[in-house]
Amino acid sequence: VQIEESGGGPVQAGGSLKLSCVVSGQMFNYCKMGWYRQAPGNERELISTISSDGTTTYVDSVKGRFTISQGDAKNKWFLEMNNLKTEDTALYYCAPISGTCGGYFYASPVDFDTWGQGTQVTVSS
């Protein structure tokens, strides 16, 4: 399984970025996908999820500014980030989330500590 994030970069506060995620290497059967981030000195946190029925969740710190969406293919999803703040500076990761889908349980590769390289977002004031 390979997870690839892209779209990060330097941006000024108030700016926008759109991150992309692609998972390849196996049949994609997950019903829930997520975006995580890890700021220096902090633990990695799950900041947003999207389910196959379109349900989305956000942590309070990004609610109203970030939008998670599904691509045309179910192994691709995005995170649109608007009104970025300096505290959004972090390494951003994506991953499918373990759970039952179509009657079967699928474990996420991150449960086996398999992550992508992440994409760095640096917001300057």
Molecular structure report:
- The chain has no helices and twelve strands.
- It is mainly beta.
- Strand 5 and strand 6 form a beta hairpin.
- The model has no long low-confidence stretch (mean pLDDT 95).
Task: Explain the layout of strands and helices.
Elements: E1 2-6, E2 9-12, E3 17-24, E4 32-38, E5 45-51, E6 56-58, E7 66-70, E8 76-81, E9 90-96, E10 99-101, E11 104-106, E12 119-124
Parallel strand pairs: 2-12
Antiparallel strand pairs: 1-3, 3-8, 4-5, 4-9, 5-6, 7-8, 9-12, 10-11
State the gist of this model:
It contains no helices and twelve strands. Helix content is about 0%, strand content about 50%.
Key traits:
0% helix; six-stranded mixed sheet; mainly beta; 12 strands
Tell me the strand order in the biggest sheet.
Answer: 2-12-9-4-5-6
> Which stretches are poorly predicted, pLDDT < 50 over at least 5 residues?
none
Structural category is mainly beta
| Helical residues, percent | under 10%
Mean pLDDT: 95
Tell the overall outline: globular
Strand content: over 45%
The run of helices and strands is EEEEEEEEEEEE
Oligomeric nature of the chains: single chain
Using only C-alpha atoms, the radius of gyration works out to 14 Å
User: Largest sheet, if any?
Assistant: 6 strands, mixed
Number of helices: 0
What is the terminal separation in angstroms? 37 Å
Strand tally is: 12
